[in-house]
Write a structure and sequence with these properties.
Layout lengths: L1 H9 L1 H4 L11 H19 L8 H20 L7 H36 L17 H17 L6
Length: about 160
């Protein structure tokens, strides 16, 4: 956020000759391009979510965060009643996806975190990274991924 603020305030982007059309581009067109870029990463990254490894799911989680934060940032551009409704629905779906991916990430990192804190032998510690719930979490995450990917995009 600090870098973005600095970039805007310094205004080098206005004099950069590499992309003269950027300053003339409507904000909604720019936002749509940003959304499309992140949406493609989310859509592609979750295709085989159940079979993906922890690192791939973590990358998907990061891409989902970027898409959600971009959608929050550009929300004022989509203020008609229908757009606002689609935006709220999309944001809720992205929140659910992030929660599911966060739970999977917690499961993947719990063992190492507990070991680093020397808490592996504490009663109940192994329950934090038990693989018994992983298959359900994976199915829930795959379902949560499909919802925003299959939904009508609020920015189109």
């Amino acid at each position: 956020m600090i870098e973005a603020t600095e970039w805007v305030s310094i205004r080098d982007w206005r004099t950069d000759q590499s992309d003269e059309t950027l300053a003339d581009q409507p904000a909604r067109d720019f936002a749509s391009g940003v959304f499309d870029k992140f949406w493609k990463k989310v859509a592609k990254g979750g295709k085989n979510l159940v079979d993906a490894d922890d690192e791939t799911r973590h990358k998907l989680r990061i891409a989902a965060k970027k898409l959600r934060y971009a959608a929050e940032f550009f929300e004022p551009l989509y203020n008609s009643k229908a757009e606002a409704k689609r935006h709220r629905r999309f944001m809720k779906m992205m929140e659910i996806l992030q929660d599911q991916l966060g739970s999977l990430n917690d499961l993947a990192t719990a063992h190492d975190m507990l070991a680093a804190l020397e808490l592996s032998d504490v009663a109940g510690a192994k329950d934090l990274y038990s693989t018994e719930d992983k298959s359900k979490l994976l199915k829930d995450a795959a379902k949560a991924h499909d919802a925003p990917v299959d939904a009508r995009r609020f920015w189109r």
